[in-house]
């Protein structure tokens, strides 16, 4: 076994998926807004499962907050906790760490709160600031005292140093100093504020509930759980300020061509969400259709790798005419119990999460449809499980192009040398995983599935696809300072 192979196999129970960034949700104009925020965060749990927090404001009791490790359902469903968060205005955040310390530290949990001359303000941030390290050094040199390892705390400190007269103006002032991707929601004593970076890399939507209630959310699926009406997406580079049932819209940044994260279509967003007026499920189904057209193969069954591969597998099956089957079952109740101290449990790896229907796949030529290949370790294990169950052939079809570049905009991506596609050709990956065939959807095919009928405009891409193309719409300043080399000089404008 080579050193490279040992590196890829050094994560025996790693689920080999890109980790979602974070989820944000805010509500204003309704009694006990924190309860609505808790429900919204529950719907956004797929975007971050490490921890969650809520800050609420009540005119009589002021600001109150709660920050907890673990799932929303295990913390923010307790009456005693929710009663401590009264008021008609609240924001919340679910976290998967993408910057700063990976250790479990309660002070890293958002929303963050600051007391300013014009009153308190809390913020929650989805995304990643690519110049956070240089900003942090500058702020510390000028006397700032950081309380967390999160890049998002830079925003609070930049606000504190602004001479603007309102919270909204200070937020805009601060965000003009940062680089990277951000969808930020903030709250003062009377206002709910939402803002997206000029490229609109990360999502943010606006909803309405009742006569004067409004919500901001990372995804539309969180509107559905509270019965809110989808109003519209917050536009790239837009700030919305909501107070007393009135929405004010401003444009605090220079105009730029939007570059929304295309991986939201592939994996991050829930399939029942809407992006750009289009169902995420519909896009993933169409990815399967495009895959079947680009990479046909003779086989007996099309099986998804649960759960994110299911819509694409259905599309592949319908386009190819090959029967769809649930050849792999996911243990929905496993939680985090696969992380056990015993060597025996660790060696079970993927088998704790997935189990093969042996009677279904035995003797069959099986097409497995998955959303992505990152390190390739899980693909290799699943292949072994399918062959152990008696399958005659295993063909992998991947619903995204090869992930060959790290993301610096809010996704926890391994270092580039740990990405399988960064070191191997498609044929080498096929041999390393050990499957009969391996094919990825093309970048043009992915764009077509997302509704761009002519595919990718190479001179001016419609999405951020840096993890596939290596073309970064915002230069990752901190990483370049550490020696990271981008693929093309045209990437950073």
From TrEMBL:
EC number(s) from the headed UniProt entry: 2.4.2.14
Q: Which residues form the active site?
A: 22
- InterPro entries, A to Z: GATase_2_dom, Ntn_hydrolases_N, PRTase-like, PRTase_dom, PurF, PurF_N
Question: Which UniProt keywords are given for this protein, alphabetically ordered?
Answer: 4Fe-4S, Glutamine amidotransferase, Glycosyltransferase, Iron, Iron-sulfur, Magnesium, Metal-binding, Purine biosynthesis, Transferase
Task: Name the SUPFAM superfamilies on file.
Answer: N-terminal nucleophile aminohydrolases (Ntn hydrolases) (SSF56235), PRTase-like (SSF53271)
Q: Name one GO molecular function term.
A: 4 iron, 4 sulfur cluster binding
Obligatory cofactor(s): [4Fe-4S] cluster; Mg(2+)
Which amino acids does the record list as binding [4Fe-4S] cluster? 261, 407, 464, 467
- Pathways per UniProt: Purine metabolism; IMP biosynthesis via de novo pathway; N(1)-(5-phospho-D-ribosyl)glycinamide from 5-phospho-alpha-D-ribose 1-diphosphate: step 1/2
Q: Which reaction does it catalyse?
A: 5-phospho-beta-D-ribosylamine + L-glutamate + diphosphate = 5-phospho-alpha-D-ribose 1-diphosphate + L-glutamine + H2O
UniProt record, GO biological process: 'de novo' IMP biosynthetic process; purine nucleobase biosynthetic process
Positions bound to Mg(2+): 308, 370-371
Identify the residues that the record assigns to the Glutamine amidotransferase type-2 domain, covering every copy. Answer: 22-245
Enzyme class of the recorded protein, top EC level? transferase
The note describing how and how many cofactors are bound reads: Binds 1 [4Fe-4S] cluster per subunit.
Which CDD domains does the annotation name?
GPATase_N, PRTases_typeI
**What is the annotated role of this protein in its UniProt record?**
Catalyzes the formation of phosphoribosylamine from phosphoribosylpyrophosphate (PRPP) and glutamine.
The Swiss-Prot or TrEMBL record describes its family as follows:
In the C-terminal section; belongs to the purine/pyrimidine phosphoribosyltransferase family.
- Give the protein name, as stated in the record: Amidophosphoribosyltransferase
Lineage here is: Bacteria, Pseudomonadati, Pseudomonadota, Alphaproteobacteria, Rhodobacterales
């Amino acid at each position: 076994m080579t050193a490279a192979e040992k590196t890829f196999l050094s994560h025996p129970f790693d689920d080999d998926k890109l980790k979602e960034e974070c989820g944000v949700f805010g509500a204003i104009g309704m009694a006990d807004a924190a309860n609505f925020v808790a429900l919204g965060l529950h719907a956004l749990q797929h975007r971050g499962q490490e921890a969650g927090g809520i800050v609420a404001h009540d005119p009589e009791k002021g600001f109150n907050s709660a920050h907890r490790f673990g799932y929303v359902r295990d913390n923010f469903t307790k009456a005693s906790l929710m009663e401590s968060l009264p008021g008609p205005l609240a924001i919340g955040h679910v976290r998967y760490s993408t910057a700063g310390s990976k250790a479990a530290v309660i002070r890293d949990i958002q929303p963050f709160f600051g007391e300013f001359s014009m009153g308190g303000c809390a913020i929650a941030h989805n995304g990643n600031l690519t110049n956070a390290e240089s900003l942090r050094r500058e702020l510390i040199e000028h006397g700032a005292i950081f309380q967390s390892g999160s890049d998002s705390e830079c925003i609070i400190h930049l606000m504190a140093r602004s001479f603007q007269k309102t919270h909204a103006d200070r937020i805009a002032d601060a965000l003009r100093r940062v680089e990277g991707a951000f969808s930020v929601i903030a709250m003062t004593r009377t206002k709910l504020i939402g803002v997206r970076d000029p490229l609109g890399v990360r999502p943010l939507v606006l909803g309405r509930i009742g006569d004067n209630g409004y919500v901001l959310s990372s995804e539309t699926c969180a509107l559905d759980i509270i019965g809110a009406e989808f109003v519209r997406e917050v536009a790239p580079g837009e700030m919305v300020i909501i107070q007393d049932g009135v929405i004010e819209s401003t444009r605090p940044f220079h105009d730029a061509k939007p570059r929304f994260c295309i991986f939201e279509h592939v994996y991050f967003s829930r399939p029942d969400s809407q992006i750009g007026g289009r169902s995420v499920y519909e896009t993933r189904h169409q990815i399967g259709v495009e895959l079947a057209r680009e990479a046909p193969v003779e086989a007996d069954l099309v099986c998804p790798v649960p759960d994110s591969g299911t819509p694409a597998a259905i599309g592949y099956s319908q386009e190819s005419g090959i029967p769809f089957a649930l050849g792999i079952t996911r243990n929905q109740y496993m939680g985090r119990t696969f992380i056990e101290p015993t060597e025996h449990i660790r060696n079970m790896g993927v088998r704790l999460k997935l189990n093969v229907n042996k009677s279904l796949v035995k003797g069959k030529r099986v097409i497995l449809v998955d959303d992505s290949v990152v390190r390739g370790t899980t693909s290799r294990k699943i292949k072994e499980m399918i062959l152990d169950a008696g399958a005659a052939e295993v063909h992998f079809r991947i619903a995204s192009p090869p992930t060959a570049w790290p993301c610096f905009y809010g996704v926890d991506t391994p270092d580039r040398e740990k990405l399988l596609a960064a070191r191997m050709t498609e044929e080498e990956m096929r041999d390393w995983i050990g499957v009969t065939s391996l094919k990825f959807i093309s970048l043009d095919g992915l764009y077509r599935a997302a509704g761009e009928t002519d595919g990718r405009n190479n001179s001016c891409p419609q999405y951020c696809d840096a993890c596939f193309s290596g073309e970064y719409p915002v230069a990752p300043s901190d990483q370049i300072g550490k020696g990271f080399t981008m693929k093309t000089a045209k990437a950073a404008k």
